[in-house]
């Protein structure tokens, strides 16, 4: 069935290091991929997205990489800060499911000072 | 500033009671969504609306209903609350044609005893 999964449920990094959060997806029809960040006690917050016709997209301190060959998505956070501590969700969507988001289970990122 | 609000933030109710969770957005977004979030399941879509008088079932719609009488509001009703509906509920909205960029409310924590 459809699924968006994660390789690592938890990730612990040192402040200042780079973080890489991975996500695997199974639906070849998915054409839009999104990363959200959820801080404790809050709703998810959009970070960055990427269309399937792109391999890489950069934002402020974040980069998303898409490898369609192996159905893999990653979020890279440069110079990780304590404020980056949160749960990160990947999501996918495609036209055939009325553009609903299919959410992964999330990866918890802990930044150690 | 535009925002999306949910009320109440916390609710305790008894099995069998009808409960309505409110969601109000001032973004003037066409799209609105209700999710529930439980440990181990991530975010699961309950119902969604792509415009006034439009409602659609998500993956876990049984026992829930919504109505969309205006752009700003999408109340979620639990017809007869069950203990399995104890969860954190998030409302979200997005602009027309931009399902991937959703703005989330702060969530409602519901306990059904």
Measured between the Cα atoms of the first and last residue of chain A, the distance is 40 Å
Structural shape of chain B: globular
Average pLDDT of chain B: 96
Task: Give the class of chain A from helix and strand content and strand pairing.
Answer: mainly beta
Strand-residue fraction of chain B?
Answer: over 45%
Q: What is the helix fraction of residues of chain B, given as a range? A: under 10%
Order of helices and strands of chain B: EEEEEEEEEEE
Which structural class do you get from the secondary structure elements of chain B?
mainly beta
Task: Describe the main β-sheet of chain B briefly.
Answer: 7 strands, mixed
Low-pLDDT stretches of chain A: none
Number of helices of chain A: 0
Please trace the helix and strand order of chain A, writing H or E for each element: EEEEEEEEEEE
Structure summary, number of beta strands of chain A: 11
Q: Oligomeric state of the chains?
A: heterodimer
Compute the separation of the termini of chain B in Å: 37 Å
Query: How much of the sequence of chain A is in beta strands?
Result: over 45%
Low-confidence stretches of chain B: none
Main sheet summary of chain A: 6 strands, mixed
Task: From the alpha carbons, calculate the radius of gyration of chain A and give it in angstroms.
Answer: 14 Å
Roughly what is the average pLDDT of chain A, rounded to an integer? 91
Based on CA inertia axes, which overall geometry of chain A fits? globular
């Amino acid at each position: 069935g459809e699924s968006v999964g994660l390789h690592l449920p938890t990730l612990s990094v040192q402040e200042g290091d780079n973080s890489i959060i991975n996500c695997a997806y199974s639906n070849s029809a998915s054409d839009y991929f999104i990363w959200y960040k959820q801080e404790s006690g809050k709703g998810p917050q959009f970070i960055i997205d990427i269309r399937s016709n792109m391999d890489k997209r950069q934002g402020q301190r974040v980069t998303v990489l898409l490898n369609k060959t192996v159905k893999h998505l990653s979020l890279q956070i440069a110079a990780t800060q304590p404020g980056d501590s949160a749960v990160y969700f990947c999501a996918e969507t495609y036209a055939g499911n009325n553009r609903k988001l299919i959410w992964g289970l999330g990866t918890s990122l802990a930044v150690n000072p | 500033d535009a925002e999306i609000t949910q009320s109440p933030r916390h609710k305790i109710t008894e099995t069998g009671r009808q409960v309505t969770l409110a969601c109000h957005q001032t973004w003037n977004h066409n799209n609105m969504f209700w999710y529930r979030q439980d440990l181990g399941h991530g975010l699961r879509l309950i119902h969604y609306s792509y415009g006034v008088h439009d409602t659609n079932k998500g993956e876990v719609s049984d026992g829930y209903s919504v109505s969309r009488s205006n752009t700003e509001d999408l109340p979620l009703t639990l017809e007869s609350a069950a203990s399995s509906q104890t969860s954190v509920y998030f409302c979200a909205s997005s602009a027309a044609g931009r399902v991937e960029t959703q703005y989330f409310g702060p969530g409602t924590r519901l306990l059904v005893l």
